[in-house]
Amino acid sequence: MASATATQEPKLNHIGLPILEYRGGKSTLCAGCGHNAISERIIQAMYEMGVEPERVMKMSGIGCSSKSPAYFMSRSHSFNSVHGRMAAVSTGAILANHTMTTLGVSGDGDTASIGMGGFVHMLRRNLPMIYIIEDNGVYGLTKGQFSATADLGSKLKTGVVNDLPAIDTCALAIQLGATFVGRSFSGDKRQLLSMLKAAIAHKGTVMLDVISPCVTFNDHEGSTKSYKFMQDNDEPINEVDFVASFEEIEVDYNSGEIFEVEMHDGSNLRLRKLHEDYDPTDKANAVRTLMEAQKNDEILTGVFYINTEQPTFIDLLNLVDEPLGTLPETLTRPPKTALDGLMASLQ
Amino acid sequence: MATGNLALGEIQGATSTRARVANDFSINVATVNGSGSQSANSVLLKSIFGMGVPVSGKNLFPSNIAGLPTWYTIRASKDGYVARKRDAEVLVALNPDTAKQDALALPAGGVAIYEENLNLRQYRDDVVFYPVPFDRITAAICPEAKLRKLVKNMVYVGVAAQLLKIDLAVVESGLRKQFAKKVKVFELNFGAVKAGYDYAAEKFTKQDPYVIERMDRTAGKIIIDGNAAAGMGAVFAGVTVVAWYPITPSTSLVEATTDLLKKFRVTPEGKATFAVVQAEDELAAIGMVLGAGWAGARAMTATSGPGISLMGEFAGLGYYAEIPGVIFDVQRTGPSTGLPTRTSQADLLSVAFLSHGDTQHVILLPGNVKECFEMGYSAFDLAERIQTPVFVLSDLDLGMNNWMSDKFEYPQTPLDRGKVLTAEDLERLGGFARYRDVDGDAIGWRTLPGTRHPRAGYFTRGTGHNDAAVYSEKPEDYVAGMERLARKFENARKLVPAPVTVKNGTSKIGFLAYGTTDFALRESLDQIKKEYGQEVDYMRIRAYPFAHEIHDFVASHERVYVVEQDRDAQLASLLKLDLPAEQVMKLRSILHFNGLPVDARTITEEFATKEGL
User: Which distant-in-sequence residues (6+ apart) come within 8 Å of B585 by Cβ?
Assistant: First the structure.
């Protein structure tokens, strides 16, 4: 079976769960909000990958985006923390239990403004988690101020023009150490689903910037984060296809057109080259490509960078295989002889 | 007391006409920051300890890496007093910049051991002078010029040992311990000690009365600083996640923790059963602690005032979402950057209510290094039992100075991991509501991420929620949750360490204090008794929320003096919020807040003035 063809989906996934077990509460976001489409893709990706819902930690900060973990995977463990601090809270949670799949949902304000400090240090650490920015270029809950990812020259509904350059979270993530970096669009179901599935298979920081139009405050003429603008300017750098380890490979392809990445769990990420000879393992080229696209008003999407070799923060800390949080007392409290020895040395 | 002729310490044949003062004086060592005097100070301190004499050391240092003046005071006290004394009788003057001021600060009849060319005799003539050519002595025994600056400090240890009659063998054994296996370093340093010792023997006849005499009051005792003790406590609590941002004076707490984790918490396969993360800031540090605590780890951070300020928002999340975590606050002098290397107790109120909204925190208040250890581990039990961040408020004086103590005892009880449901529990129960008070103790049951049961997951949030952890803005849900949290806090009075009744006789007057104020206050009680014939009761507070015994103590006295090291009477203020209205009028304050640890004399004088004695 091919992963991307929804019509062939079985009723139960390969761990025997129906998709219903991956659903969450009813969304309270606006009808048509891009975030709801992303939640749907997360549900689908987790279901198709057969991830056990109890083995997932859903993390978020504050904002419209950060509410969305309530709208998918109710069986998972969830932590909606404080504004801009998802990276730090996730770091702690992952240190306590690195055996979990950790998926965080943040927004452009939550990440690129108030949360920038924590965000960049999470990238540096290559913390094993999926970090999704639901990026709409505005603050929704406070009714439509520009965020730091709003493009230079883009216009608010009120006519106010943004005169500051946008922070390109993808370029930043590549430069600072994330090992799987891509951009997608909430309206591109196929691309987003494949990227999410590959993200689940990746070991290290996955940073996905997903353009997710705000229908209420930033979907008008003059916005560069509107459905219309994305439909006109979305420029995929590669076509993303993902074949899970438990799936059969059945598609023939011309190897010269495909950049194939073998993931840690034995699955395959195939990136069909749409831009001439784009190599997603070349860091410097990836950053340059993004900067050039910005100059040309193109919104590049696809997988920009991948590195399956880089050790994660957990590797660097050389942690035991078991979760630290539930280690037994025999392993965490040193014996009395240890204290006796210390006391003798202090006499 | 003679004056003028005391300035002739180096004159052969002169004899002292004063009574000996044995084991009851302070030594003030004045050096330049960064000159490496710390190990010499430590050797001198441990030598006095080795003579069996109760001793304490205080490092009064600037916020600077090298070049500014620094003082180290060592107090020997046969009576076991370990608080700072206002005056030091013996000066070791090695810093030209402060030599005059240091010499003038000596009490009449005091002693000055000093670098010869500082010529301290020009400033006064009522102290005993022992001029020493430190550089010349050092050059003779240390051929390597670049080591001389460090080795020079050991020369004064030798001079002091000779003049104060400290057994050289005791100094030698302390030094040997200090340098452990570094034989060459030991030899060089001991050579310096001996050179100083011999020089003093040859050149000086003792003119001053200060001596160290052997006692047996340190047998079985240890010397340790509060930060090392607290870190040790955390390790024996089985801490698994440490996230921190360096800040004076808490840095050494995490460093001590890390060293011990590396020593005791690596598996035979070489894997770590702990994670230590130097975070990007204090916001991230406490965020990591809460993330880890939520996911089941025993997690901690250590900080000081500025870090506490940054942790405010997260502290409220921890309180409201009910997540365990331990935050050590080693208090320094604020506000703002304040005096970063001086001590204070002025974080109490801001920690008690840290964060916006109605927030209250459990605070443990260690009063000595042994309690730093004990509260260092019990804080984790309490945090998991009560499901809340627990703060441990130490201070720079306790945290960074060396203190004598009884040996620490191994924890008597197993780790208390609090109310956590397993998959089996959930199967039996058919589900759970995270914040429902099913046991009547206002503490709900929680699950840990990864618990393999379809009903294990719940939504942790800092937004309004009902008892099933579901988002709610309903007034009744909010009120019910907040009232349960208040009940939980009320119940915590019985769970936190009880106060220590140091003295409770028939006096109408009582003292209340916490933390390092205890050292000076105990001495002050003796002074008040000796000098004014008055017995005063004293209870030492060890935690917030306040135990009922504290209410009883206030109720059973006519006047209660609250002694604390801050300007705004923070402990008294917190007590006033807690006590019944009719008790509040009984409280009065004795305050000390100049950055130096409070001394007994200050308390005694203030008490006498206020009581009209």
Answer: none
